[in-house]
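Forwarding these from the shared drive since the link keeps breaking.
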Amino acid sequence: MNTRKRKVLDVARSLFIEKGFNETSIMDIIHEAKISKGTFYNYFTAKNECLIAILQESREDASNRRHELIFGQDPKDINIFAKQIAVLMHINREQNLLQIFESIYHSRDVGVKKVVMRHHLQELDWLSTRLVEVYGKEISVMSYECAVQVFAMIQHTIRTLLVAEDRCVDPEAVVKMALRNIDAIIPRMLETKEVLIGVETIHYIKNSVEHIVINKNMIIKQLKGFIEGLSKSDPKSGVEYANYILAEFQQTEPKLFIIEALLTPFRKSFTKTTHASEAREIANYIWRLIKEEQPIDEN
């Protein structure tokens, strides 16, 4: 994402938080970003696309942090799992996304509701997959139902405490409570085999979630373009990490464990630069590709 587009998105985010999504117009964004109408439409065809980009960034950030948390750890470790679930809640607070969600909660705009619902379904899809990795393939048919119950317990507990006691609770504490409860519920669900979220609903969810096909050549091409866009003013360590990762990917049999070890420092080295967004995207794509190459042992 180029610098000007990044500025427009940052302005849109600030206005959505300050004024509310519905109350913010495209002209507000154009005026605050000090750009022409044509420039805005070169980047986004509608205000909704700004929201989509903001939510996409939060998902990429969450995906990277989740992969980093599990790197070198037991994927079935409940404490690690709880931290992974809590990641998006931490990001929502850090980026004030909760205020944006609140501002569009009563929106009558069907397009906006679809954007938010898709964001929710992506999270649901991720959690259902992780539940299968943690509890085994035998819960596959009920994984989405379990995911819905986990999220319901988390969200309603947090909202109740906020309304009743006007306090924000530690997300990880609430997540661990929800996982303890689902741990007790799963045996009963396996016994009864009763589920409300059936195969058709699961297919709908999966079809609603965008799955980008990632391959080695795609990564190499993006890394080359990324490196070509760097300059002497960019972090030297970041440039070195990018070149190391590219060189390893260009090998006939890349050493994935080396690439994994470099991804976190690579991403973090560009955090406060204009390349932060693309570095985050590249890291996210690579983590996903590696996971596909090295599926988690479910035994």
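-- next protein --
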Amino acid sequence: MTSEGASGGVDGAVGSARDGAVGGAAATGPVAFIGLGHMGAPMAANLARAGVDVRGFDLSAEAVGHAHEAGVPIAASAAEAVAGARVVITMLPVGRHVLSAYSGSGDGGGDAGLLAVAAPGTLFIECSTIAVDDARRAHDLAVAAGHRSIDAPVSGGVMGAEAATLAFMVGGDDADVAEARPLLEAMGRRVVHCGGPGLGQAAKVCNNMILGVSMIAVSEAFVLGERLGLTHDSLFEVAANASGQCWALTTNCPVPGPVPASPANRDYQPGFASALMAKDLDLAAQAIASTGVHAEAGSLAAEIYKRFAAGDGAMRDFSAIITDIRERSGGVSASPEGPTA
């Protein structure tokens, strides 16, 4: 029951973590936070700083130690964290971990499972990035057990989690989303109610499919520009102010120089790791298959990032896909000043 890694995507929010009770968050009653990894620990810490009675738990002793150092009160078990809690927040790696944690079957759920331990009517807030079908299954399990449930995946990565500037894409009933909002606003800057159960995950999948496809297109354009003799700066100046403008270009530019804050200037240290992009695009591919949508670009992007993340690219920023494109184009190398053969 370990929290997922630096889930990312497009989120331009800026700010700093809140101190003290925020927007009534402290009035919601005890909150169990299950999954204290790279994302979960700072999110739970921000709730604690907002005055919320948080009880955190993770199966990883290392994760628990980091969360405790960050100010998160730790329960001895998931059952202890959930018992008597008004709200249960989960931040776990993949859908099967969420479903097993809810039901108590398989890996990570404990003997009884969170749903069996929780008091009747508990609000479950599922913040992991998982398949839409898994999110709806988790919702159905919670409701069948006498609870309430919303899905609220995040965008913004570890930096957003630490700074309490995450964006939440939320699916669920109006009343449940309204009750969860003060807690979400203590952990983030933007909360978008996308519709009913599972539609928060649907929005996350669609958004990150756009991001993956656009990063591949931007990277291919830069490599093509290098071959044609364009400098990075000249191509950026044109595209950033013309119809090629997009977040992958102007915020996360895959070449060093034009955007000093982009990971390309730090040897592609993530950021948003390619392994996580591959995961999100795989979720998109699953959704494409289940709906029968003819989405060639999204499906191809999933294959490209899966291949890249299977090797050394896994822990590099997703913009490092440009290095793979160069290698497959015959080993073109480039500097910020322009291309070299």
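The first helix runs from residue 40 to 49. The first strand starts at residue 31 and ends at 34.

- D.
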